[in-house]
Every structure is written in structure tokens, then in C-alpha cells.
């Protein structure tokens, strides 16, 4: 029997703090790199300097004029056309810059980050698995070494960096992989790693070898080239892939790794089609496990590095609070998700967030960004992506303690959720909506209200009917629906958001565990009119359960957490300063490549790969939202 569990929207805010050491990153444009403390690492206790710049919030954007309709009608149908491919509960995952992996995961295989473990456990309890990528630009120069001092697993050579885009060489030990493997012993984490591509005449395959040997089934993908469109020509890239596969296939030791490649991870300078049209996917079909892209909606490179176009945060902020943002991000890839389906390959947004080059303080780390992330993630799912990875670094939290996963690898592949974007007549960009299907039946809805209005007058009401009318289906309106809300007082609020009444707490208050009692609203439906009226606060998200499924998110897996007093006191060593991050730029960092226009090309400068805005502050922002679509798993 299948057990139906809810679509779960995981919001990770205010995570990571307590006894954990935290490296201070600076919000671009908010804190000068010249500040003497700018590259220091601070323990939780001395994190006050972060607080000094952290409280930045932007004014709540004015309500639109004219106001959009605040009452919309939906009639849900069984087997509605246009439903997505079936989606995994692990749809949303995390991308962690390799150079900061030792700050996020732990120090080494014997010292794991407890808040991270708690967070991952919290997610896994709801999703069954968590996908995490270790990589980014800093993987390009990574070289495996036998050992490092003091049990370190990663080290950067920061000397001799003379200009901002230069990449510090990164060295790592096999213990990095053991650390990842140990985490997977505790939590069902599935890993992506990346092969360094800075020298395609001499591929350093040690990471693929170590990952295959140590992670086993928990290794699900190996990136072949990170954002090649910022460095190479098409033909060169395809040639590089060819020679990589040649080299790998000559090694019987890499028999698994050679079939797990992820490509092409283009970031917008090349269209994905320009890669598909080379025939790469057909030629190397047995080697390619994932098709990937990376993209950020915009960048904050000018404030950070003086590169590109200055951004006006005042005008930018409201653009995140509209469905049109997610639409503009997803639309360029619709042809590619269709192409991927035709080739039988999953298509993944391998790295994304609110903005590259660090994100924007007051945008990237507030409730509005959470709403944006929920909408973006769901639209990707509805559009036949097979995953999305929010890039985080440093202090965001990922991992957790041991919970027996509710499912194993084989049953993990049996998710049956499908996502459909649904529009009502006169629907505006401020109130996007989705339906989750299981076995062809609408079972849940996600209703989003981007408006922010403390008067309560901008609450939005969805009038939900099922079948009947012109659908040729009988009406099946339930006597009641249950609703979980994601709420905060305004889109500008930082921390303290609630999900079904529970919260991770305020900024820097969390150890990765949810606090409080889960609260699920019951809303009676009008059996005469055959409609359920669900109100969505302004701002907020409502997850509506249309059937009588069990609603406790923690069903299916026991709750296990790690004590925060364990291990973390010693975790105060691995740090990387803002200036070092500014150089984690991949390849040989030869030049400011890419365009200076909007788009992730610029993301390759500076903080790209490191940490979008709020995460820098240890607030697990929208960047760290994991939105998990969980469905029928076979027990
Ligand atoms: C690639 O990176 C490795 C390790 O950092 C370095 O030794 C090598 O010189 C680099 N190769 C090129 C061509 O940049
Ligand atoms: C991890 O680091 C600690 C502290 O430096 C050290 O004592 C321990 O041996 C290291 N563990 C491994 C597996 O290297
Ligand atoms: C963690 O990794 C080390 C290898 O460094 C291994 O000896 C140890 O048994 C692992 N611990 C767990 C709990 O898997
Ligand atoms: C979709 O992608 C395929 C494969 O690259 C390409 O041949 C086709 O022209 C694309 N269609 C559109 C409308 O871009
Ligand atoms: C940013 O945009 C706002 C609103 O359009 C405008 O009032 C403000 O002057 C702009 N700021 C800068 C620095 O250009
Ligand atoms: C997603 O794929 C399904 C199945 O192929 C298709 O029916 C649907 O139209 C696709 N959706 C989008 C937005 O491309
Ligand atoms: C995974 O679950 C399936 C279905 O319950 C079961 O048949 C299989 O033996 C399990 N595999 C492992 C490795 O536990
Ligand atoms: C849509 O808007 C138009 C113009 O405001 C209005 O006349 C019409 O009744 C609306 N339709 C619905 C279904 O609300
Ligand atoms: C709007 O929604 C909020 C949160 O649910 C609620 O407290 C408030 O009463 C609602 N306001 C109106 C006018 O319905
Ligand atoms: C860096 O990479 C670029 C682009 O691949 C290449 O043109 C340049 O020669 C390289 N520079 C060094 C110092 O390796």
C-alpha cells in the first residue's frame, strides 16, 4: 500500500547558530571588504558584528494600483492535461560551494556540523531524501592530496591572489568524501560532486574515484564542467566532454562514475539548445545521467566588485514579489525540459538563488524571498524540471542525524506526485497557484499571495471546486479541507516565519530543529454551493489538503535530532574570508568573462558559488528553502 504524505514546503530560516562557529560573510554593498574584521570568523557568541549590518530591511513595497482580484475561482479536474512528470520528494536540494563545504558539513569525517544534521533530518523526515551538491566554481582547481594539517579536509591557498577574479587553488583530502559518507550513514543524503575542468588535457579524476568508492549508492551525479559557457567555446566543451569520457572509460575503476555525468550546466551565455544541437546527449547517452543548467535572475556584482551594472534595490525588490519572476526564469528552459523528456533524462536547475555575487541584503534574506522560492520551485516542478538546487554556502545548514529513511533507493524512485500550475480567470501575477496530483487525482493545492498588507484587506480567497460543471466529472467536494500556512507579518520580515505554526525561530536562533506545535487549520466547505473557500493572508502561502490524508509531516520517519552541545565547540577553524570568496571563481580566473548584463554570467565573479545574501548572515533564506513534493512512497 502506498502511504500518502503531504507536499511539504520546507522553509529554512534563522538556522544555524548556537554553539556553531560562523564565518562572517558580508552582504555585498552593505559592508566594505576593507573593514578589518571582514574576513574574520566569529563564534556565535561574538556574532554581534553580523547583527550590526544584518537588520537591514527594505520598506514593504506599495500595493499595486489597481489592486488585482482577490477572489479567484478554480475547478479542479481529475487527470487534467499538462500535469508534470512525476516528481520526487527530494526535488529541492542544496548546492554547496566546495570551498566552504568544511564550514557547512563539518570539519572532517569525525566532526560533523550538528545544526546542519538537524536541518537535514528535519527535511528528510518530510522528503525521504535530500540532494546535496558539493561543487561550484571552486571545484575547478580542486586537487586531492593525501593529508592536510590538523585533520582539515579542505584548504585554500590564498597567498598570491592579486586580482579579484583569480581563483585560489583548492586542495582536499579523501576525508571530505568520508565526511559526506558519514553524513549519509545518518541521513539519506544523495550527493553530487564535480570533476575539476581547469585542465582538460589532464583531468584530475580523484574526486570521482573517491566519491564512487566511498559514497556508493549515495553518489547520484558527477558534474562535468561548471558553467562552461563562461570559459570555453562550444566545440571545445564538447571535445572536453569527449576526452573526459574517453579517459574515464579507460579506467575500469570508474565503471560507476562514468555513467553518472551531469552536463552541460550552462548559465545563460549559451542556450542549452546550442549544446543539445551538438548531438552530445545522444552520443554519450550511457554516460550522461543528468542534464543541467545554472541560472540566477540577476546579480549584485557592481556593488561587490564594480563589475557590471549598478542595481537599484528599491526598484528590484518588488520584482521578486510577482509570479512573473518565476515565469521569466523557467520559460527559457521549457524547450529543454521537453528535450530532456524525449531523451529520457532528468533536467535539473543545478545552481540558483535570488542573485549571484552575494544576493541583496533586505531581499535575499526576507520572507518575500521565501515566497519567491516557493513559487519558483513549484513552477520548475510544474514545468518538468526534475530538481532545483538553491546555492548556499558557509552557514546555511544541511545535514542531520540519523533517521531511518522512510524509503530506500528503489522505492525512492516511485514517487507519483505531479504538479500543475493552474490559473483562474483574471488571475494576476501576485497570486500564483498550483495543484498537486497523485494517481491522476487533485490532492493538494498551493496558493501564494505575494501582496503584503498588514491591514488584512489584501488577503486572497481561493474558491475551490472539484469536478462538476463542464468537466464531465462528478463533484467531489469534501466536507472540509485542512490547511497549513506559511506566514510572516510582512514580505520584509527576517526570521521568525511560521510554517503550520512551527518556526525555526528568529535570525541566528536556530539549531536546525523546528520549534512549537504544528497547527493545521480546518476549513469547512459549502456542500450546497460545492465550494471550499480558502483564505491566503497577505503575505503568505497556503497548502490545502483536499483529501483526508494524514497530515502530520513527521509521519513515516522518526524524529531524531543531535544535541547542539555535541561536537560543535571544536568547530571553529575552517573559515574563508569574503576576499577569498571573491576569488572563488573557477578555472584559471583569467579574466572577467561573460557579460555584464543581467544574468548569471556575472555570477561567476566573486561570491558566485559562495553565498547569496542572507545566507551570508547565517539566515537560511529563500536560498535555503527546500520545497519538497512528497507523494506516495511504497512502504
Ligand atoms: C589546474 O588546477 C591545478 C590544481 O589547482 C593546478 O595545479 C594546475 O596548474 C591548473 N591547470 C591549469 C591549466 O590552469
Ligand atoms: C578531525 O579533526 C580533529 C581536530 O583537529 C582531529 O582530532 C581528528 O583526528 C580529525 N579526524 C580525522 C578523521 O582526520
Ligand atoms: C566516519 O568516517 C571514518 C573515516 O574517516 C570512519 O572510520 C568512521 O567509521 C565513519 N563513521 C561513521 C559513523 O560512519
Ligand atoms: C528545442 O530544442 C531542440 C533541441 O535543441 C531544437 O532542435 C529546437 O529547435 C528547439 N525548439 C525551439 C522552439 O527552440
Ligand atoms: C532607485 O529607484 C527609486 C525608485 O525608482 C528612486 O527613487 C531612487 O532615486 C533610485 N536610487 C538610485 C540610487 O538611483
Ligand atoms: C510536462 O510534461 C508533461 C508530460 O510530458 C506534459 O504533458 C506537460 O505539458 C509538460 N509541461 C510543461 C510546462 O512543459
Ligand atoms: C527496498 O524496499 C523494497 C520495497 O519495500 C524492498 O523490496 C527492498 O528489499 C528494499 N531494498 C533494500 C536494499 O533494503
Ligand atoms: C474578469 O475581469 C473583468 C473585468 O474586470 C470582469 O468583468 C469579469 O467579471 C472578471 N471575471 C471573473 C471570472 O472574475
Ligand atoms: C487576513 O489574514 C490574516 C491572517 O490569517 C487574519 O489574521 C486577518 O484577520 C485577515 N483579514 C481579513 C480582513 O480577513
Ligand atoms: C585561462 O583560461 C583562458 C580561457 O580558457 C585561456 O585563454 C588562458 O590562456 C588561460 N590562462 C592561463 C594563465 O592559464
TrEMBL record:
<dbReference type="InterPro" id="IPR031728">
    <property type="entry name" value="GlcAase_C"/>
</dbReference>
<dbReference type="InterPro" id="IPR017853">
    <property type="entry name" value="GH"/>
</dbReference>
<dbReference type="Pfam" id="PF16862">
    <property type="entry name" value="Glyco_hydro_79C"/>
</dbReference>
<protein>
    <recommendedName>
        <fullName>Beta-glucuronidase C-terminal domain-containing protein</fullName>
    </recommendedName>
</protein>
<feature type="signal peptide">
    <location>
        <begin position="1"/>
        <end position="21"/>
    </location>
</feature>
<dbReference type="InterPro" id="IPR052974">
    <property type="entry name" value="GH79_Enzymes"/>
</dbReference>
<keyword id="KW-0732">Signal</keyword>
<feature type="domain" description="Beta-glucuronidase C-terminal">
    <location>
        <begin position="434"/>
        <end position="543"/>
    </location>
</feature>
Amino acid at each position: 500500500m502506498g502511504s500518502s504524505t503531504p507536499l511539504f514546503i520546507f522553509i529554512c530560516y534563522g538556522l544555524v547558530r548556537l554553539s556553531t562557529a560562523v564565518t562572517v560573510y558580508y552582504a555585498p554593498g552593505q559592508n566594505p571588504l576593507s573593514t578589518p574584521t571582514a574576513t574574520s570568523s566569529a563564534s556565535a557568541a561574538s556574532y554581534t558584528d553580523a547583527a550590526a549590518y544584518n537588520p537591514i530591511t527594505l520598506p514593504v513595497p506599495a500595493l499595486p494600483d489597481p489592486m488585482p482580484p482577490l477572489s479567484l475561482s478554480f475547478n479542479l479536474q481529475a487527470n487534467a492535461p499538462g500535469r508534470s512528470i512525476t516528481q520526487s520528494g527530494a526535488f529541492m536540494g542544496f548546492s554547496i560551494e566546495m570551498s566552504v563545504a568544511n564550514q557547512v558539513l563539518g570539519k572532517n569525517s569525525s566532526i560533523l556540523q550538528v545544526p546542519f544534521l538537524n536541518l537535514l533530518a528535519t527535511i528528510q523526515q518530510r522528503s525521504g531524501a535530500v540532494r546535496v551538491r558539493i561543487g561550484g566554481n571552486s571545484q575547478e582547481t580542486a586537487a586531492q592530496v593525501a593529508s592536510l594539517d590538523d585533520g582539515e579536509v579542505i584548504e585554500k591557498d590564498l597567498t598570491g591572489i592579486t586580482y579579484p577574479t583569480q581563483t585560489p587553488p583548492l586542495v582536499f583530502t579523501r576525508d571530505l568524501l568520508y565526511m559526506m559518507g558519514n553524513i549519509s550513514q545518518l541521513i539519506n543524503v544523495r550527493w553530487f560532486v564535480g570533476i575539476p575542468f581547469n585542465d582538460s588535457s589532464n583531468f584530475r579524476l580523484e574526486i570521482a574515484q573517491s566519491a564512487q568508492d566511498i559514497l556508493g549508492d549515495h553518489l547520484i551525479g558527477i558534474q562535468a564542467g561548471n558553467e562552461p559557457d563562461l570559459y570555453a567555446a562550444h566545440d571545445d566543451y564538447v571535445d572536453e566532454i569527449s576526452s573526459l569520457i574517453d579517459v574515464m572509460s579507460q579506467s575500469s575503476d570508474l565503471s560507476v562514475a562514468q555513467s553518472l555525468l551531469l552536463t552541460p550546466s550552462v548559465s545563460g551565455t549559451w542556450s542549452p539548445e546550442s549544446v543539445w544541437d551538438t548531438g552530445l546527449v545522444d552520443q554519450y547517452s550511457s554516460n550522461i545521467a543528468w542534464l543541467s543548467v545554472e541560472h540566477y535572475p540577476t546579480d549584485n556584482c557592481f556593488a561587490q566588485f564594480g563589475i557590471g551594472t549598478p542595481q537599484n534595490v528599491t526598484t528590484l525588490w518588488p520584482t521578486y514579489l510577482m509570479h512573473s519572476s518565476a515565469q521569466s526564469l523557467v520559460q527559457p528552459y521549457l524547450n529543454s525540459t521537453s528535450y530532456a523528456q524525449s531523451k529520457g533524462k532528468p533536467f535539473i536547475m543545478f545552481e540558483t538563488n535570488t542573485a549571484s555575487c552575494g544576493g541583496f541584503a533586505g531581499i535575499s534574506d526576507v520572507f518575500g524571498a521565501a515566497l519567491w522560492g516557493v513559487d519558483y520551485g513549484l513552477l520548475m516542478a510544474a514545468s518538468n524540471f526534475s530538481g532545483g538546487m538553491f546555492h548556499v554556502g558557509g552557514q546555511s545548514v544541511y545535514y542531520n542525524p540519523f533517521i531511518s529513511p522512510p524509503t530506500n533507493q528503489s522505492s525512492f524512485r516511485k514517487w507519483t506526485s505531479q504538479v500543475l500550475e493552474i490559473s483562474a480567470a483574471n488571475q494576476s501575477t501576485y497570486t500564483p497557484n498550483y495543484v498537486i496530483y497523485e494517481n491522476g487525482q487533485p490532492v493538494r493545492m498551493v496558493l501564494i499571495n505575494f501582496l503584503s498588507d498588514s491591514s488584512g484587506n489584501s488577503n486572497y480567497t481561493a474558491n475551490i471546486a472539484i469536478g462538476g460543471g463542464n468537466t464531465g466529472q462528478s463533484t467531489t467536494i469534501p466536507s472540509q479541507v485542512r490547511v497549513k500556512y506559511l506566514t510572516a507579518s510582512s514580505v520584509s520580515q527576517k526570521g521568525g516565519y511560521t510554517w503550520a505554526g512551527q518556526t525555526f525561530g528568529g535570525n541566528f536562533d536556530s539549531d536546525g530543529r523546528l520549534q512549537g506545535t504544528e497547527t493545521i487549520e480546518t476549513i469547512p466547505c459549502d456542500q450546497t454551493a460545492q465550494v471550499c473557500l480558502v483564505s491566503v493572508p497577505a503575505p503568505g502561502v497556503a497548502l490545502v489538503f483536499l483529501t483526508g490524508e494524514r497530515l502530520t509531516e513527521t509521519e513515516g520517519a522518526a524524529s531524531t535530532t543531535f544535541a547542539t552541545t555535541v561536537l560543535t565547540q571544536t568547530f571553529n577553524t575552517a573559515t574563508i574570508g569574503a576576499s577569498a570568496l571573491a576569488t572563488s571563481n573557477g578555472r584559471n580566473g583569467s579574466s572577467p568573462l561573460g557579460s555584464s548584463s543581467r544574468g548569471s554570467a556575472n555570477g561567476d565573479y566573486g561570491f558566485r558559488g559562495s553565498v547569496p545574501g542572507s545566507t551570508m548572515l547565517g539566515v537560511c533564506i529563500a536560498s535555503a528553502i527546500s520545497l519538497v513534493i512528497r507523494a506516495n512512497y511504497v512502504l
